[in-house]
Design goal:
The complex is a heterodimer of chains A (118) and B (106). With 118 residues, chain A is mainly β. In chain A, strands 2, 4, 5, 6, 9, 10 and 11 form a seven-stranded mixed beta sheet that branches. Chain A has a four-stranded antiparallel beta sheet with strand order 1-3-8-7, with no helix packed on it. Classes of the chains: A mainly beta (118), B mainly beta (106).
């Protein structure tokens, strides 16, 4: 059974860096893309970006200048760094597994509410 | 970016009703369309991938159809546990974009 477990700071000050990590348990790590998706309170879902086991990334252009997604294949973990955060970055952040072929997110982490506030 | 729209934004139906939600893409995405169900305080759950493929473990009352720019999610017989928000997502071009969601109530 595949499980994604994520962690990171729930409160980040404006202009600082949001950092989250997601560990993958079960299943193949190398066969999939791994992504981050966020959801501001009361709003819809926004795709942030994805990475595969070899470090190949795709980012949302709206966040590309501030986002880095990295991978540690030996630990079966991947991470999100979002720099220079503002209040509008307040959201629940999810890590997900991109399913093979069609890119749907078939497994999700539990979500982390990150609040940007001083 | 590919823009995704959904209709209606919300609906209320009775147990046993047939419910249909539509999703439209701003350009052709062939069949790269996925549907998710989200209950309050929970992570989204994949229901349908590639327009019409039922994800493992999802009840057969859920079905999807469409191709190109127009897609439909159907719940054949609405159950109380189906109260949730349903969102479509295109995975044809990055950034993969979501529709705004349809809230389903009983």
């Amino acid at each position: 059974q595949v499980q994604l477990q994520q962690w990171g700071a729930g409160l980040v000050k404006p202009s600082e860096t949001l950092s989250l990590t997601c560990a993958v348990y079960g299943g193949s790590f190398s066969a999939y893309y791994w992504s981050w998706i966020r959801q501001p309170p009361g709003k819809g879902l926004e795709w942030i970006g994805e990475i595969n086991h070899s470090g190949s990334t795709n980012y949302n252009p709206s966040l590309k200048s501030r986002v880095t997604i990295s991978v540690d294949t030996s630990k079966k973990q991947f991470s999100l760094n979002l720099r220079s955060v503002i209040a509008a970055d307040t959201a629940v952040y999810y890590c997900t597994r991109g399913g093979d072929g069609y890119g749907a997110s078939d497994y999700w982490g539990q979500g982390t509410l990150v609040t940007v506030s001083s | 970016d590919i823009q995704m729209t959904q209709s209606p934004s919300s609906l209320s139906a009775s147990v046993g009703d047939r419910v249909t939600i539509t999703c439209r893409a701003s350009q052709s995405i062939t069949r790269y369309l996925n549907w998710y169900q989200q209950k309050p305080g929970k992570a989204p759950k994949l229901l349908i991938y590639a327009a019409s493929n039922l994800q493992s473990g999802v009840p057969s009352r859920f079905s999807g159809s469409g191709s190109g720019t127009d897609f439909t999610l159907t719940i054949s017989s609405l159950q109380p546990e189906d109260v949730a928000t349903y969102s479509c997502q295109q995975s044809f071009f990055t950034p993969f974009t979501f529709g705004p969601g349809t809230k389903v109530d009983i």
